[in-house]
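Q&A log
Question type: sequence-to-structure
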Amino acid sequence: MVKIISSLVAFFSVTSLFAQNVSPETPKLVVGITIDQLRGDYLELFKHTFGEKGFKRLLGEGLVYANVKYDFPYLDKATTITSIYTGTTPSYHGIVGENKYLPETNTVVSSFADSKYLGNFTTEKFSPLAIKVSTIADELEIASGGQSEIYAFAPDVSQALASGGHGANAAYWVEDYSGKWATTTFYKSTQAIVDQFNRSPEAISSTAVSNSWKPAMDVTRYNAFPYTKNIYNFQHFFVEDKKPSYKLFKQSPHLNAEVRSMAEKLLKANVFGKQSNPDFLALTFYAGNYPNALDKNYSVEIQDNYHRLDQDIASLLETIDKTVGLKSTFIFVVSTGYFNEQEVYPKEMHTSGGDFYPSRSQALLNMYLMAIYGREQWIKTYYNQQFFFDRKLLEDKKIDLRDFQEKAAEFLVQSAGVQDVFTSFQMLHGAYNQMIQHYRNGYFKGVSGDLFLELQPGWRVVPEQQLQTENNTRTRNNAVVSPAIFFGNGIKAQKIERTIDASEIAPSVSHRLRIRAPNAATGNILKELY
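Response status: OK
Response body:
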């Protein structure tokens, strides 16, 4: 009798254990949403302007992680989104910036430039082949035997190709010069709905110039910042030098509405969620500053942008629910983890920082190297807080690269505003500490430079050369609070007050899809998503 009772207890214990860990149904659709420069503190500050079905719904009903960390330097929209979808850092996936410097031609090109492929609705040539590892979309395409429908829509080419990966049916971005939804012939199929829209009177290229951006609600409600100089009505036209400026358009909430609208067109056309294999929709929105805002630091424009984005999120969720069903859809929302400040300091204010002039630093460094190694132009250029040496010249002169880099670093670290200097040799062969590892994560051989500069907080780079890309803002070491949210498909509402690594997102999404993680993914599966 005792044995029977013991067996029954053991049986029900095991049954209960399995019941608690029953995996949810594989979703019919995954929607990956990256929001460039989304700030968690702004979601809190601006919530009085939100409705109940957008951000509030995601934050109230989703699994919310307080912050996402990117463990590499020089965050931008290309490096961060590629890291989200590959589950690794630039040292593996190869995208070290929005653009890259080519020493052989002394030019800067898109990190995704590829002359082997033509463009659709663009004359520029791109492909995702610069991504050296697999992405979530790639692994889904492999697992489904090419049967999953995978599309990406984003403001810029880097965002579209990073989220669409190698395996998408097509990845679309808004072309800077034509205003069309463009893609690359790398992808073997195009979406007829997108082509039809590009040729219609509603196309961005037809409406952007006649359109303008005005507040969506009474501006007196945009009172989140006590430091805003004045609450002002505004009207922005997307024109520069009497010509359409799609670059300005892409930094306005109208672009977010276009991304959302295109996604809804495909959802309503039953493109997604109608077959046995999961489908994938990757969307990128913009939550950064508008360059022509009147109050650079605390603008009314950014509050209006968040208010409108909240409405777009609400509309998208409603459309997903009506077409595929939220229970059958797994949604993740991730910030890119940085914010481009448009800092304006009072003229009479004297700060502890200063201005770092790359061209002057380059000239002084080259003079120092001339004194040691001879009168040559040893430095190719400065780009993106990196110095690139003339490697061929060093080889011809039979100069030891490690010794050359160390001497240059020792000289530069004495410069005003320079906190530290790291050499590429250190990253590949040297003894490690935490900071060197951080920079090593952002280094990719053959693309990155020879010296990496860490500037002191409060210092800003003042561009003087054509190759410069830094915005005119001061260095800040404090991180932006960047939330990550998982929603739908049986996700239980939770708020997790811990920082997760960006590398954990791809393997966690892959786990829910029951596919392999991307082949260079280094992060763990988030335990709350098991």
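Response note: The longest helix spans residues 300-323.
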